[in-house]
Structures are given as C-alpha cells and as structure tokens.
Amino acid sequence: MTTTPTPTGRREHRDGRSYVVLTRTFRAPAEDVWAAVTEPDRLARWIGTWTGDPRTGSVEFRMLFEGEQPAETFAIDACEPPYRLRVTTTSPTADGGEESWRLALDLTEEDGTTTLTFAQDVPDPAVADSVGPGWEYYLDRMVAAETGGDPDSVLFDDYFPALRPHYRAAFGLPDQPADGSSG
Q1: 3-class SS at 169?
Q2: Which domains are delineated in the chain?
Q3: What are the Activator of Hsp90 ATPase homologue 1/2-like C-terminal domain coordinates in residue numbering (predicted)?
Q4: Which helix (H) or strand (E) holds 137?
Q5: Beta-ladder partners of 110
Q6: Which pLDDT value is given to residue 93?
Q7: Which run of H or E residues covers position 118?
Q8: What is the pLDDT of residue 69?
C-alpha cells in the first residue's frame, strides 16, 4: 500500500541563500540524536556511510540509495557536539565539474525531547522539488531507525514525485506539467 507522507519542509533565507528546512522530534536526549547523525554505525542504518578521519576537517560520504554515485567529500565547517554541525558537500557532476551544497544540523533539547532542524541550501530553486522530497524520505528513515521501526519500510516512491508540488510552491516554481517534467 502506498501512502503519501505529509510534507514538512519549508523554504528559509539564511545569509542571502535559500534553504530547504525540515524538523524531526525525538523522545531522546540530544547526545543520542547527535550519535544518530554522526556515528558511522548509526548513520548506516538510515542514510549512508562515511570514511576518513573527521579531525582532518573532512570525510568521504556515500549515500545508501543514490546508485553508483561516487563518494562525496564532506568538509566539516563547524562541529559543536551535541548541538551544531555544518558541512559542505562536494561531488562531481556529469559534465566533469563539481557541485557543492551546504548542510546544517541543529539540535535543541527540552525535557528529554530533542528537535533536529536540518537545512540544505538550494542555490538553484529548480532542484528544490527533488531535494525536499529526498530529505523528507531520509529523515523519516532516521525516525524509523531511531524509534525501533524498520527504515526499509519507508519507501522513496511514497515521497517522490508526490511531494514535488509542495516544494515547487515553496520555492515559487510554476505548477508541474501534467507530463511530470520539471517544467
């Protein structure tokens, strides 16, 4: 059975850039949620794996469900456990160039409940309708992994293309054409 999740992301402007911003809440201390987004074994349950030594200022990260894509370099711009992480990802493009994205993770804890606020910059608004649903999917996989559920029960096909209209509207893009192209 296919179910369409309710989109939670929004557009925010930070430092002159547009971001997709999403939140998830966990009944867990910030240190536990921090481990879920930084420890290799915990990350591997819901999104991917990293190799390297973060003390050097970067690691190589490979997402689980992005096909045969090469690992991306994640430059660690700020790391303040267990509340703040900033990274810049760099990956090769099909034309031999590179693209970069800024990711921001902020955790706040109150009364044993931690809220994760995740943000990714979107320099080209035309890709917001794939970035948003993608992060909704991965963050819901995280919720499943961290609450005793099965991350594999979270299906990408429930998120994409169903959530595209929400992100197209949030980023001021025209309605999606009936043929499904990004218009």
Answers
A1: helix
A2: 17-170 (3.30.530.20)
A3: 27-144
A4: helix 128-146
A5: 113
A6: 77
A7: strand 113-121
A8: 76
